[in-house]
Amino acid sequence: MKQGAVDFFLSRFNITLEEIGRLLGVALSKGGDFADLYFEYRINNSINLEEQLVKSATKSISQGVGVRVNSGDKTGYAYTDEISFDSIKHAALTAAYISQAQKEVGPVSVSRHSNKHNLYSVEESVSDLPVARKIELVREADSLARSFDKRIREVQSSFHDEYKVVMIANSEGLLVGDIQPLTRFNVACIADEDGNLQMGRAGGGGRSGIELFLKEVTSQSLAEEAARQAIINLEAVDAPAGMMAVVLGSGWPGILLHEAVGHGLEADFNRKQTSAFANLIGQRVASELCTVVDDGTIPGRRGSLNIDDEGNGTTQTVLIEKGILRGYINDRLNAQLLGVDKTGNGRRESYQHMPMPRMTNTFMLAGPESPEDIIKSVKRGLYAVQFGGGQVDITSGKFVFTTSEAYLIEDGKITAPVRNATLIGNGPDALTKVTAVGNDLALDKGIGLCGKDGQSVPVGVGMPTIKISEMTVGGTN
Amino acid sequence: MKHTKELAVSIVEAAMKKGATAAEVIIYESNEFSAGVRLGQVETLKDSANQDLGLRVIWEGRQATVSTSDFTKDAIAQLVDDAVELARATSVDDRLSLPEQSEFARDWPELDLYDRESANLSTDKKLALALEAEEAARSFDQRIVNFDGSSFDSVSGGTILANSLGFVGFYQGTHCSVSTVPIAQEDGKMQRDYWFDTKRKVKDLENATSIGRKAAERTIRRLGAKKIKTQQVPVVFDPVTATSLLSNIFQAVSGDSIIRKSSFLLGKLEEVIASQNLTVVDDGRIPGAVGSRPFDGEGLPTRRNVVIEKGRFKTYLLNSYTARKLGMKSTGNAVRGISSAPSVGSTNLYVEPGSFSPEEIIRSVKNGFYLTDLIGFGVNIVTGDYSRGASGIWIENGELTYPVEEVTIAGNLKDMLKAIEMVGSDLEFRARSASPTIKIGSMTVSGE
Which CATH superfamily includes the segment(s) A5-233? Predict the structure, then answer.
């Protein structure tokens, strides 16, 4: 059996449980009421293919320890990229200064805890594979995209994999570890027809081994998807402007939930009363067709984790149940200050960052309707199936997300593809206008990266086909 | 600096000994500090030292880039082995090489990038600045009821770059910034906005009270915002939103986009692509400016590049790889990430100020939109299609009237650049990029 995460750190950096306990004692020596140590060792590999050349291969190794001290609602944080007792002690003393008291704190006694989940379905670790295997995949995607249509002129394909080992120890005695794999395969195509250039993109991945890319997220499926999108966009007409019915396809369009409600339901914003959703627990924020969950426990998904970055097991949290707001996305500090249960959503980008409440996989449960019937029910509107990024102002509740593949709906039929357009809405009431939910729930293919306060973490989204009775579409026509 | 130029040179030599055709090492060290305050109390304090080492090797026309934060002897030896091995797996790219010997920066002027006072500022002083900004915003108006936070952030860092053609360079720099994000409430609705400043020296920062007041003013004026009818109108971009437009222009003129045929400005060099009111400059040698640096990410001297001159597209911004691909010369815009090959980046990128005050620009609009905030990523640099979430203030008969939100503005950058009717005189650097107020003749505002 492979060495576990905790043993990896203890043996590689020659550090003992007793020393970890002493370091936590140092962190609390100025009167803090909670402290944790986040050990991280991470290898990132990437391969990039452009112009049919493997133009670059990269490998980066990053390691360090972040020390956090909480005192009431205050947080002190310091990190070191040298994993040694003395360096961590220095960081612990720095972080300790968030509290100004003096107190005698002995060493903390930490003991190993096991993880509740075993979610990463890795048959063959990608990070251990020879580079040549990954190059084969990106090359395949390149040639398949080019052979899709002769108007495909440029193809970029890249493969990224991460091998991250973490260990978390805290002043409550917890000591846990996790080995977190993450993979992502991207293909982008440019189609050129008499100088009309259009782009198409596709990608996928997860906490998986190479087998995912041989069965589900194959180079063929990504190449065809990216090429198809670029070719379709050659025909795109100006997008409409104004309020209209919008039908969102299943899968990645679930970014709607991430922006419209997800961020606004993160507990830090609600504890501080800075979110448009503050004080709305128990109230209607969506139509009764909508049940939205955040679930970090789905095997193999990009947003899933055995433990969050505070060492707590991830969970499934019901955010909205049949339209009623039920709960927030919590980390340790905010759950404690709000007097509610942790939800296992304390996440951070790396040891250089303090944890905060973040989404994992956020999706809406399936409804009864067929996607075809939903489209048929719209006289004039927009059918959007692929999106680029989105953003939200959690205080005013205004959110946007931008289509990368969308069509007009005229008299219940999908007609012309339209140019990229941003859709804008108001979080607390956008989902009250959901008038149909499809039976085709799908999760995205594993491409989401969520930014908050300068920290990026991988996330997933999902949704069945839904109809929103009216929403502002930001076209020009 | 904990690490030295000699270390960088020794790693270059080690890579050459392992068979590399060319090698380049970057070492980056920094001390980062961040203090967050909220409602008169310290909320977060973060203080840390950081080090990173990046190695790029070229082996017979093939390239790999590796990096580590572990500076132990064994880790560095492993890094060198990994780099050479990885390079063997990539493709031969005949445009790949270090810059020409003659191109490297040899000497450079003192650019005043490092400030001892800013690097050594006490925690109390830093907290005091963040608290002062917050208090100024809070006392500005009683409708300021809450804060998303206020902060003081600073970085003091050093960069060493060395390569196998004998270039060795080193510079240090400091940055600091103060920002505050007030929340205003009226009739049960909340709005937030922000204001900030970033400078190399703490003494050059806009005073914290003034930052707080501007943040409060920007927040208060959003209260009571409403949606408006869909229409085509002139749009006046305030300096914040105009700067985001400038970043879209940067992406389109960057060699990285051009060689990938991913720019709506592809092939338009020397053509008129914007109104004659628009001049865009990237200048890496402005003394004391946040985006200045003596040499770029490949060791070439930075310089002043006029990208768009009175509407005419004068130059792409290039590093040596993109330049070679296009049969041109580097413009000194290479940016070397620790773990990636050099890409193209801007230095101090700005729109040359025009002659109009912002008030004159607003007065010129009978019915239009004064834009103060943009959200989302709805800009397609390949096609120029532009569609973003917007908020601001409606202009009627040359006067700012009521706030507007939950609308989008849309157009195509090709048309928008040509429709720049007025450029303000109000250029102020608060970060690496800056623009004065800009008026675009007509865009679609989509609302009800």
Answer: PmbA/TldD superfamily (3.30.2290.10)
